[in-house]
């Protein structure tokens, strides 16, 4: 079968999601109001609260949430077969991720652009807020530690990505300054993307490697340290100076990269080499139910998106109606990345470099991961467009590195927010300080990055962290959907379009977490067991708190808010 059918199925589904379903949710359920004065305008401090052009904000939001996850997850999950991965990516993006991301952005916007953790205090209660913040903090530690190991691995495997990845930083700063001075956005975007692609060419002909074992941790460990030094500094800079323009220009680069990849499919016409349902699963393969739904998180549904939507994006939302464009379309953009990943790693062009596809995917834990996307995508681009394969590999490796890097920027900033909130709640003065709170966040991430090891080299535990990230991520997504549903009920609106995906994903994530707790216990991976148990306990407690509020709403103890109250976002 031709890979074109996979592409058409996914894109038709995404088109329905954007033109039909998202419009219904935005108008009838969330009732986005263009006249509502957003926190970005009310506060506008020039640092975190900055009214932002919706195209710039979409790029910033998209690349902050995308990271490497919509590449790694599908590249692993296709081992079960390409059909389950395709169905979850397509329907998950339409009915789960888009509703979740737009809803988190809208609900936060209506409450002073508070983070999901702080927002839960208003909607559910203070105890729920404290529990929410624990889950969010643990997820951010997992995300930052895992992505640091992924970036480090890619920089070692693909040294051609090093120069363009770091060159993107000064390019982003220049773009941020020019946007701030109201220069033509289209012209800035074209020039910025052109410079990025020139650095990719330079990297492809001039690969860079670390000069020896600099810190005594090997190349991977050294890159992890350097990445956290950068991310720590970046997380304390004003959003308009680095985070926002870096995310935006990366988003523009991704759009171009996706165009090249998708058009290459129609030019090269590759067949699908992988089985629709794999009948030859290895003995150590986890069950597809429920593990599929936590293996592919970003690209179908991700709780991390709610953290970004409420933590940074809501503070930059210029008009409430932009929540649909930024949130829902951002989710579809990530779904399109997951979709093309499925094509890249299952296509006949990729498998042609080996005896067969099964040799590339000899086991669930032995697949190529994001390297499969880079290698398979590069072969697809080279075959379709005639681009030198070294340049295509560098382009895709840089794509993975830059996305994961922008996620680390946002993730550390969000960790700092939580630590500072804890400092305020518990009156711990040092934790309120930007530098100290950032150092605490980095220390927690480094402890996990180097504390969980596969036994090869320092910082090789990314693959072990992935399942814990997936389960925690989806549990948080279900909690965020529950929070949105309670808020809708308090406004007298129907929560069923939010509750249905919430119930499904909570069941899958909780089931998967139980399975992995047993697996990690048997392997004596105690740090992962502790994190999983803690997340499960806190999620159950949040659920009970929410059910208590729902009961009071249904009994009339909590009155349904009036239309005027809904307009102000006050409860």
Give the topology, please.
Blueprint: H1 4-29, H2 39-42, H3 54-66, H4 69-77, H5 82-109, H6 116-123, H7 126-157, H8 162-180, H9 185-205, H10 218-236, H11 243-268, H12 288-295, H13 303-311, H14 322-346, H15 348-351, H16 357-360, H17 370-385, H18 389-425, H19 434-451, H20 462-490, H21 496-522, H22 526-555, H23 563-568
Helix pairs in contact: 1-5, 1-14, 3-11, 3-14, 3-18, 4-14, 5-13, 5-14, 5-20, 5-21, 6-7, 7-10, 7-18, 7-19, 7-20, 7-22, 8-9, 8-11, 9-11, 9-18, 10-18, 10-19, 11-14, 11-17, 11-18, 12-21, 13-20, 14-17, 17-18, 18-19, 20-21, 20-22, 21-22
What tags apply to this protein structure?
globular, Sodium/glucose cotransporter, mainly alpha, 571 residues, 23 helices
């Amino acid at each position: 079968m031709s890979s074109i059918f996979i592409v058409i199925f996914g894109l038709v589904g995404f088109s329905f999601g954007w033109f039909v379903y998202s419009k219904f949710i935005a108008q009838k359920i969330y009732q986005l109001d263009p006249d509502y004065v957003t926190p970005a305008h009310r506060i506008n401090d020039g640092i975190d609260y900055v009214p932002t052009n919706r195209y710039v904000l979409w790029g910033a939001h998209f690349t902050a949430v995308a990271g490497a996850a919509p590449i790694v997850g599908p590249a692993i999950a296709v081992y079960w077969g390409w059909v389950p991965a395709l169905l979850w990516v397509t329907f998950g993006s339409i009915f789960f991720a888009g509703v979740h991301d737009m809803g988190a952005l809208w609900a936060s916007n209506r409450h002073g652009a508070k983070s999901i953790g702080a927002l839960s205090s208003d909607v559910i209660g203070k105890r729920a807020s404290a529990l929410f913040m624990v889950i969010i903090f643990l997820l951010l530690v997992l995300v930052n530690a895992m992505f640091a190991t992924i970036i480090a691995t890619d920089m070692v495997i693909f040294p051609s990505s090093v120069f363009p990845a770091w060159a993107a930083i000064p390019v982003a700063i220049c773009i941020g300054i020019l946007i701030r001075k109201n220069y033509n956005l289209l012209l800035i975007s074209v020039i910025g993307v052109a410079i990025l692609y020139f650095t990719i060419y330079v990297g492809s002909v001039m690969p860079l490697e670390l000069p020896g074992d600099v810190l005594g941790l090997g190349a991977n460990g050294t890159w992890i340290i350097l990445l956290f030094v950068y991310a720590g500094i970046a997380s304390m800079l004003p959003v308009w100076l680095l985070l926002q323009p870096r995310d935006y220009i990366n988003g523009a680069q991704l759009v171009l990269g996706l165009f090249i990849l998708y058009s290459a499919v129609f030019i090269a016409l590759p067949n699908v080499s992988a089985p629709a349902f794999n009948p030859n699963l290895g003995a150590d393969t986890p069950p597809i139910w429920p593990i599929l739904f936590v293996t592919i998180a970003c690209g179908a549904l991700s709780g991390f998106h709610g953290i970004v939507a409420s933590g940074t994006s809501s503070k930059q939302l210029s008009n409430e109606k932009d929540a649909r464009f930024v949130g829902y379309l951002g989710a579809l953009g990530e779904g399109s990345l997951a979709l093309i990943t499925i094509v890249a790693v299952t296509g006949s062009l990729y498998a042609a470099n080996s005896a067969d596809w099964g040799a590339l995917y000899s086991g669930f834990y032995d697949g190529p991961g994001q390297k499969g996307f880079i290698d398979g995508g590069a072969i697809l681009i080279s075959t379709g467009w005639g681009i030198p394969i070294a340049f295509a590999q560098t382009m895709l490796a840089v794509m993975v590195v830059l996305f994961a890097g922008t996620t680390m920027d946002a993730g550390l900033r969000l960790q700092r927010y939580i630590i500072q909130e804890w400092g305020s709640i518990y009156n711990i003065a040092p934790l309120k300080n930007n530098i100290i709170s950032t150092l605490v966040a980095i220390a927690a991430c480094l402890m996990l990055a180097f504390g969980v090891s596969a036994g090869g080299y320092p910082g090789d535990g990314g693959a072990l962290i992935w399942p814990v990230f997936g389960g925690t991520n989806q549990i948080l997504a279900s909690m965020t959907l529950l929070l949105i549903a309670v808020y809708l009920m308090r406004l007298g609106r129907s929560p069923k379009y939010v509750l249905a995906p919430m119930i499904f994903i909570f069941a899958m994530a909780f089931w998967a977490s139980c399975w992995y707790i047993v697996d990690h216990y048997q392997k004596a991976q105690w740090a992962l067991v502790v994190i999983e148990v803690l997340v499960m306990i806190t999620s159950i407690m949040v659920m009970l708190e929410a059910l208590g509020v729902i009961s009071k709403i249904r009994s009339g103890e909590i009155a349904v808010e009036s239309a005027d109250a809904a307009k102000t976002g006050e409860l």
